[in-house]
Every structure is written in structure tokens, then in C-alpha cells.
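#lab-general

N.A. 3:47 PM
ok so I finally got the sequence cleaned up, no stray characters, all 163 residues accounted for. can someone with queue access submit it? mine expired

B.Y. 3:52 PM
send it over

N.A. 3:53 PM
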Amino acid sequence: MTPVLILMGSQSDWPVMQAAAQMLEDLQVPWQAKVVSAHRTPDLLQTTMEQAEKDGVPAVIAGAGGAAHLPGMLAAFTTIPVLGVPVPSKQLKGLDSLLSIVQMPKGVAVGTLAIGAAGAANAGLLAAQMIGTTQPEVRERVQQFRQAQREKVMANADLELPE
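B.Y. 4:20 PM
back already:
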């Protein structure tokens, strides 16, 4: 199976983006992570997406903070689904990143997830669900994950809560 590509604009985004890698790892979906900056290495961004097309990468998860141009720029170079994860910034706590990623122009789609590690984890889950549409073994692992989540909630459903 060709790995899901996890891209981030800076090494400092890894503490957030590792949640995507962990989710993919848990679901036994191969992944590869790289640092590619939309602003500092636009040539690397383009060649990375050209190679991803050739390799048959099934999905790209892109984390970016601040101006957060990376997911949109990646989407401009490919028809591979791009899942954007807003990385929290110091100044605006990721709201700037969220708005930048979610406000793509018509015709260049980026799936945008929640700000931070929860969004990164869900990007990994969503990528696995997309792969699961054609790979039954991945779909089964996603279903098992969802069942385990349900069982955790049900195990605590009858707890008596303090008044």
C-alpha cells in the first residue's frame, strides 16, 4: 500500500501532526512525513506533489499554521485529496490557520479539519476511511476502531455522577 503523505510547513508542526501519524499507525495504514514550506521551498512543494501523483499516494494530510498556505498550494498541484489541519499559532491560537485553510476558492478543494491535534487525528482517520472505500481490510480496522470507541463510552454510561 502506498503511504499517506503527511506534510507540514515546519518541523515545529510535528507535535500536532504526529496525531495524524499515530492514528494511521493504529489503523495499520502506512504513512510518510516530510517538511515542505509553501513559502520557503515552493519548488520542493511542486516536485513533492508531482512525485506523489506518480507514486499513487491516496491522500495528503497537510498541517500549517499562521498564513497556512500549504494545504491550498498542495491542492493546486494535484487531484489527490488534501486534508488540511490548522496548526495553532501563538498569536491567534489557530483561528488564523483555520480561516486560511477553509476559505479555498471554488474549484480547488481542501478538506479542512479541526484546529490542533484533534484535527490531525481526525485527518488520519478520514484518510483511512477514504482508503477503506477500496481496501476492505482498512475499512474493517476503521470499523473496529469505531466499535472500541463505542464500547469505552458504554462502559461509563451508567456511572453515577455527583450532584
